[in-house]
Amino acid sequence: MRLLRSTDLALRVLMRLAVISEASPTTRQVAESMDVPYTHAAKVVAELQHMGLLLARRGRGGGLALTEAGRTASVGVVVRAFEGDGEVVECEGETPCPLRAGCRLRGALRRAQEAFYASLDPVTIADMVAAPTGPLLLDISRAPAPS
Length: 147
Ligand code: SF4
Description:
Elements: H1 5-19, H2 27-34, H3 38-50, E1 54-57, E2 63-66, H4 68-71, H5 75-83, H6 104-120, H7 125-128, H8 133-142
Antiparallel strand pairs: 1-2
Bound molecules: iron/sulfur cluster (SF4).
GO molecular function: DNA binding; DNA-binding transcription factor activity
Organism: Streptomyces nodosus
InterPro entries: Tscrpt_reg_Rrf2, WH-like_DNA-bd_sf, WH_DNA-bd_sf
């Protein structure tokens, strides 16, 4: 199963904020440090803010900060929210599959998808930044942006 880029980015943003103790980074700084377009990062940040997982303060001294709900957020919940209801295979697309009315494979794939999400439910953002990931993430975040 392959995750959307926005799902992976959402998890990376939460993990990055989970290890930063100094001044809150801006969305632009986060986008630059992750080498992703600002508009993509801004969209993900807005969704995470809507979910109550981070705070985005505007103006001087503003920036992004993880909420307690963000620190303890389930990776499975974040993945489900960003992936949506899509199935792993498109049965109903522009050319609907003729087997879709009674396909056992479709049900098996749905159960496999759910099992994948369920395996991530007990994993939290805080778990994901334990060593060695957290210290490494901190080093990368402090690295000067390429000029
Ligand atoms: S064979 Fe089954 S799972 Fe595959 S596209 Fe058709 S309905 Fe969907």
